[in-house]
Amino acid sequence: MWKSENRSRYDRSKLRYPSDVTDDEWKLIAPLIPPAKPGGNKRRVDLREVVNGLMYILGSGCQWRAIPKDLPPRSTVHDYFVRWDDDGTLNRIHYALYVKCRELAERQASPTAAIIDSQSVKSAEKGGAPIDPHGYDAGKKIKGKKRHLLVDTQGLVLLALVHSADIQDRDGGILLMSTMFGLFPFVLKLYADGGYQGPQFQAALRRVCPSVNVEIVKRSDAAKHFLVLPKRWIVERSIAWLNRCRRLAKDWECLNRRALAFLRLASIRLMLRKLCQNTK
Question: Where are the domains of the chain?
């Protein structure tokens, strides 16, 4: 928690850009980045600067061509971003940092409870179907994409998925849960809002995750003002944390996979800062 006593932990004014990774943050992710392939010329690219370039785009929301000149060229930063997304490097970094965050909180690597929710975001002015299909969320009145998140009780992202906004929460939630593949085998409780209620979601969830029980946390009909709902506020806070990255303000990416990669990168940034700020 931010306090005047620990303000120095959050001070990034001495960095070249506030989005740059610190020495402690780089030490956490450097061993997880794969080495250069054997053969050919020696790698001349500074990978830390590549990560700084990605974090600059993520945090500022700028265009690829607007990367500052003292960072690697946009083609280099973009090529490494695509490569690390395709070969699973971002996934490995995310999972390794997640385990460290759980250890810092003195908890098991696999949680027993999770919270699910979605966020609809507007699409930018770009191509549509069939390359980048988008839809209309009639509930939020938003034309674009929907981000589905599964977080633990600390608010850390377990799984994420990006799909068209016209897919209902109960259907998108099943798509998200089906990507777990035994990665978090001890999840037994799933908290959700009213969008996931009904026998269809229950039956589909039993097929993909038979050991998970759903608890629907509803808002009281008598409530006429803002009300903090148990467990549901955690995933809402996580969405707010991720939205500090301006690249996530709209759906700028031409592929759902790249949009998911930026979402995962935002979660990596969150865990890096949590780990380094709490160890000082």
Answer: 109-251
Query: What's the CATH fold of domain 109-251?
Result: Nucleotidyltransferase; domain 5 (3.30.420)
pTM above threshold 0.90:
yes
Place of tokens 């160890």: 279
Q: How far is CA 8 from the centre of its chain?
A: 26
Question: Residue by residue, what is the 3-state secondary structure of the chain?
Answer: CCCCCCHHHHCCCCCCCCCCCCHHHHHHHHHHCCCCCCCCCCCCCCHHHHHHHHHHHHHHCCCHHHCCCCCCCHHHHHHHHHHHHHCCHHHHHHHHHHHHHHHHCCCCCCCCEEEEEEEEEEECCCCCCCCCCCEEECCCCEEEEEEEEEECCCCCEEEEEEEECCCCHHHHHHHHHCCCCCCCCCCCEEEECHHHCCHHHHHHHHHHCCCCEEEECCCCCCCCCCCCCCCHHHHHHHHHHHCCCHHHCCECCCCHHHHHHHHHHHHHHHHHHHHHHCCC
Q: What is the pLDDT along the chain (280 residues), one digit of tens a residue?
A: 556 766 777 788 889 999 999 999 999 999 999 998 888 888 899 999 999 999 999 999 999 999 999 999 999 999 999 999 999 999 999 999 999 999 999 999 999 999 999 999 998 887 656 667 788 999 899 999 999 999 999 999 999 999 999 999 999 999 999 998 888 999 999 999 989 999 999 999 999 999 999 999 887 656 566 567 788 999 999 999 999 999 999 999 888 899 999 999 999 999 999 999 865 5
> How far is C-alpha 222 from the geometric centre of its chain's CA atoms?
34
Q: How far apart are CA 138 and CA 143, in angstroms?
A: 9
